[in-house]
Specification:
Four copies of one chain form a homotetramer.
Chain A: E1 8-12, E2 28-33, H1 38-54, E3 61-66, H2 77-86, E4 93-96, H3 106-111, E5 118-122, E6 128-133, H4 138-149, H5 157-163, E7 165-166, E8 169-170, H6 176-183
Parallel strand pairs in A: 2-3, 3-4
Antiparallel strand pairs in A: 1-4, 2-5, 5-6, 7-8
């Protein structure tokens, strides 16, 4: 399955918004969590921080996704900001867009996540290669990421990165310049 | 040092407010924490819950104290309520009264706490017998509590419990002494 | 139940043999283990070392008891000596005397232990106050020890300590009192 | 560096002896340990067992290597056999051949290992790709193994596996080539 695009209302720990389309060609580790979810705090987030540290010299992109589906008042962006600071999280973190139709936010809905913590790994071709709710061994995560990182970068990935536009916004790029770059 | 009275704005997990004066004659384990303090979440609160479970058949009183001294907006009573629910905490939890003079709440100030987590043990005679900032072994906590629980109940403790009046309010009681006190 | 005396073939980490009769008046923490028992190595022995460290300023006596009931060839005194060295165990350790009648050594048989690890706590009066097979919380162990340590030393305990004689040998002593006692 | 062949005096958990030459074309995870090495027991061996379980459907070969360099009397094959049984280790385990020249056994010497635990990973082409003394994250081990497993099997690996002869012995095979080789 092709990974649905992220629907994000706010980003932390990144100078510019990220999008899966803009990241095409790279492997993405997506960790869905809630700041008041005990298993996320004790297991999922420390594991995600280890992924960030251990794979820092690869082209893996780690993204935390705050998928609030309960206690919305207690887990707003201000609270999340304090949480990120206190837990020393250094990877980019996206706030999943609330839905107007119910408590499940949009990205969580698109991926059919059962709850938090959920780990999702997206391969270089943009497909979901791993999707798991709950707690997983570090060794399994390390192996799955390395296997996907060992795959060759798809031929059209560079082009996709140049545009970087998604339904949620665009990563700066500028038409003729990137065209001439690609064409030269 | 005689344990200063708690200054509490809100209670959770108790039908009626507690006070140290009302608890005179019993040993009290007081755990000061903040819901966004990592060492409290990973160590202090699980330890306090173990105290609650292991000493449930003694007359020990466990009290959690939410001493918010930073990120006040993110740790209000609504957020704490959700936190208590998600972490399945079953002991009485008091919200330390904010101070009008600075970020340190009143009880934290009275006890001269350095930060969170802090564990305080109060003996049957109302004196502070143990005060420690940071992480402590379960075995040490178990031993300190048992030693204090082995002490005889002071002769005047029953009287103190009967009145149950503190500067923060009164626990219902019915003698002429507390009436005259309240009425004067 | 009065704690049966230890039947010991070899001692480590002590200048002179110990005996429960010689220790009368003191609380004793007895940890029965085998060096090839996984739960002993991962849990029981580290816990016993914590007991030794945390209660070092009390009159508690910690004793490890190597109760070999299987793989006898692999767990002889030479192997145990290397094990004690590598695991940095500092409390006195006794080798339970093998039985001529079966694989269960003598002290293990006398106490009716189910297996290893087993923790036994003996009070100041020489009675078994706690006997548990398996894994126990540090907090429970700490509390049980402190409660028993808080008990007054029995009046006749000093005398018992003076003699220090048991069926397994005698701790040196030299007063007319113990002589007259032994002679009466 | 090409991985030196193993020098083995005894094998456990395998019907036939293994050799690196016979395993050419496959990735090998080699864990050097001693049964009385605390970090091996608490960390290295459980990690190796996780490698065995998690990669069981790949062609990875896990090998434990008992490299005794101290307390030789306490860690003979009989003791190791009991240890393997009690710790429920299921991967093949080789006893490193003692050296006539000193306490360091032969394979440990050939690899220049500093001590135990040591983890070594050998790639499909027979080269040492990873060599580390001490404790390593599961995630790193998982990633390194997966990266090497993702490499193509060398063209000549099948031939090497067919012969299966090493300086330590031969795995049964039946072609005239290996016969002539052994006979020459």
């Amino acid at each position: 399955m092709t990974a649905p695009e992220l629907a994000v209302s706010t980003w932390f720990n990144t100078a510019a918004p990220l999008s899966l389309e803009g990241l095409r060609g790279r492997v993405v580790f997506l960790h869905a969590f809630q700041m008041l979810c005990p298993a996320c705090v004790s297991h999922g987030l420390p594991q995600t921080q280890r992924v960030q540290n251990i794979f820092r010299e690869t082209d893996l992109q780690v993204i935390g996704l705050h998928t609030v589906f309960e206690h919305h008042a207690a887990m707003g962006p201000e609270a999340l900001k304090a949480f990120i600071h206190e837990y020393r999280l250094t990877f980019p973190i996206a706030v999943d867009q609330p839905s107007s139709e119910g408590p499940i936010p949009k990205t969580m809905e698109r991926y059919g996540m059962r709850g938090t913590p959920t780990a999702i790994i997206i391969g270089r071709d943009g497909h979901v290669e791993y999707h798991r709710f709950g707690i997983e061994d570090d060794m399994v995560i390390g192996a799955r990421l390395a296997t996907l990182l060992a795959a060759p970068v798809p031929i059209d990935a560079t082009t996709a990165q140049d545009t970087g536009c998604t339904q949620d916004g665009c990563v700066p790029s500028a038409g003729p310049i990137s065209n001439s770059k690609a064409g030269s």
